[in-house]
C-alpha cells in the first residue's frame, strides 16, 4: 500500500480517535471527582475504557467492515448482571458520542466492544487499540492517550495517537492528535476542534549528544525500573531530571522533540509488553525521524499476536543518539 492510498484510513482514524476523546473527556468532567483517587474508585476509568473502545470499533466497522481489531478490552465483565449500573453508564456515553450516526442499543454497544477480540499475528491486516492508555494518569487528571494503529503483515503502517491533556498545536481546539503514515511522515493537529484543521509536520529533536537529552519515563515504578534509569542517565552524562509522564504521551513527546529519549526498562522477568501500548507511538516516533528498539537494540516485532513476545522493554530516541543509549542501557542491565 502506498502513502496516498491511506487517506481513507487517515479519515477513519481521526474520526474514531476524536469521537473517543469526546467520550473520555466527558467522563472525566462528569465522573472523576476529588474523591476518586482517595477512595481508589476505578469506576470512571472503567466507563471511559469501555465507551472509548465501543466508539472506536463502531467507527472502524462503519469504514472498514472486515478489518479485525486487537483491542485491550472485552465486554465479558459488562455483560455480568451485577454490573448493570456500569453497563448503563457506558451505553449512555456511547449513545451521546454517536448521536449523529444512529441510536445505539445496549446489544450493539456490547458487540462493538467485543470486536476488539482479534488475536493479531504475522499475516494480514488488523487494527490495534488501547481505548485509554495510562489509566492511572486518567484518574489523576494527568496524561493519558487513545492509541490506534494499523498493522499489515506484522508491520505498523499507520498510527493515530490522541492525547487529550497535551497542549493543542493551534489556538483553537483541545488536546493533541498525532498521526503517522509509513514512508510519509508524522503530523499533528488539535484533537477536538470545530471546522477544518491543517495537519502540521512533526520532527524529533536534532541533538547529537546524549548528554544534552531530556528523557521521559513512566510515572509508575512498577512499569519501568526507575533506579536503573538513574544509572543510565548518569552513564550518558544527562543532568536534566527525567520527565515522568503517563501513557504513550511519552512517544508523542519524543516525536515532537521535547524529549530525545523514552526509556521503558523491564521490571518483572515474565512481563510481556502489549502491542496496543506501543504501536501508535512507535510509528509516530519513527516517521518523525526517530528510532525505537527493545533494550537489546532489536526492532519491536508486532507480528507475534497480542503481545511483543520477542522483545523486552523499549528504548525510543531521536535516532542520532540511539546507539549510545542502547550501549548505556546494556551496560547497566548487565551489571
Ligand atoms: N509490569 C508492567 N510493566 C510494563 N507495563 C505494564 C506493566 N503493568 C501494566 N503495564 C502497562 O503499562 C501501561 C501504562 O503505561 P505507562 O507505564 O506509560 O503509564 S504510567 O506512566 O506508568 O502511568 C498500561 O496500559 P493501560 O492499562 O492502558 O493504562 C499497562 O498495559
Ligand atoms: Mg495501555
Ligand atoms: Mg488501556
Ligand atoms: Mg490496562
TrEMBL record:
Pfam (any one): Inositol_P
Keyword Hydrolase carried by entry: yes
Ranges annotated as spanning the membrane: none
Entry EC number(s): 3.1.3.7
Keyword annotations: Hydrolase, Magnesium, Metal-binding
InterPro entries documented for this protein: DPNP, Inositol_monoP_metal-BS, Inositol_monoP_superfamily, Inositol_monophosphatase-like
An annotated Gene Ontology molecular function: 3'(2'),5'-bisphosphate nucleotidase activity
Keyword Hydrolase set for record: yes
Cofactor(s) listed: Mg(2+)
PROSITE patterns in the record: IMP_1 (PS00629)
SUPFAM superfamilies: Carbohydrate phosphatase
Chemical reaction(s) catalysed: adenosine 3',5'-bisphosphate + H2O = AMP + phosphate; 3'-phosphoadenylyl sulfate + H2O = adenosine 5'-phosphosulfate + phosphate; adenosine 2',5'-bisphosphate + H2O = AMP + phosphate
Enzyme class: hydrolase
The family this protein is said to belong to: Belongs to the inositol monophosphatase superfamily.
Name by which UniProt lists this protein: 3'(2'),5'-bisphosphate nucleotidase
Amino acid at each position: 500500500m502506498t502513502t496516498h492510498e491511506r487517506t481513507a484510513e487517515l479519515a477513519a482514524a481521526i474520526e474514531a480517535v476524536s469521537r473517543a476523546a469526546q467520550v473520555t473527556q466527558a467522563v472525566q468532567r462528569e465522573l472523576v471527582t476529588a474523591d476518586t483517587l482517595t477512595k481508589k474508585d476505578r469506576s470512571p476509568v472503567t466507563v471511559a475504557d469501555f465507551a472509548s473502545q465501543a466508539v472506536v470499533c463502531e467507527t472502524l466497522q462503519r469504514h472498514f467492515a472486515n478489518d479485525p481489531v486487537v483491542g485491550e478490552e472485552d465486554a465479558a465483565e459488562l455483560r455480568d448482571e451485577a454490573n448493570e449500573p456500569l453497563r448503563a453508564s457506558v451505553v449512555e456515553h456511547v449513545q451521546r458520542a454517536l448521536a449523529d450516526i444512529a441510536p445505539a442499543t445496549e446489544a450493539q454497544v456490547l458487540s462493538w466492544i467485543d470486536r476488539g477480540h482479534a488475536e493479531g499475528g504475522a499475516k494480514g491486516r488488523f487494527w490495534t487499540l488501547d481505548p485509554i492508555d495510562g489509566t492511572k494518569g486518567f484518574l489523576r487528571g494527568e496524561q493519558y492517550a487513545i492509541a490506534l494503529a494499523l498493522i499489515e503483515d506484522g508491520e505498523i503502517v499507520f498510527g493515530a495517537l490522541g492525547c487529550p491533556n497535551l497542549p493543542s498545536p493551534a489556538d483553537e481546539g483541545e488536546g493533541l492528535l498525532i498521526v503517522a503514515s509509513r514512508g510519509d511522515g508524522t503530523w499533528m493537529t488539535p484533537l477536538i476542534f470545530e471546522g477544518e484543521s491543517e495537519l502540521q509536520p512533526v520532527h524529533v529533536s536534532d541533538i547529537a549528544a546524549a548528554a544534552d537529552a531530556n528523557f521521559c519515563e513512566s510515572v509508575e515504578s512498577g512499569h519501568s525500573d526507575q533506579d536503573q534509569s538513574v544509572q543510565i542517565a548518569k552513564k550518558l552524562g544527562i543532568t536534566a531530571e527525567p520527565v515522568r509522564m503517563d501513557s504513550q504521551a511519552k512517544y508523542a513527546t519524543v516525536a515532537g522533540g521535547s524529549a530525545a529519549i523514552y526509556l521503558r526498562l523491564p521490571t518483572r522477568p515474565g512481563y510481556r509488553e502489549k502491542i496496543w501500548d506501543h504501536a501508535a507511538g512507535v510509528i509516530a516516533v519513527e516517521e518523525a525521524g526517530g528510532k525505537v528498539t527493545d533494550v537489546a537494540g532489536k526492532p519491536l516485532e508486532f507480528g507475534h499476536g497480542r503481545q511483543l513476545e520477542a522483545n523486552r522493554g523499549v528504548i525510543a530516541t531521536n535516532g542520532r543518539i540511539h546507539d549510545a543509549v542502547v550501549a548505556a542501557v546494556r551496560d547497566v542491565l548487565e551489571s
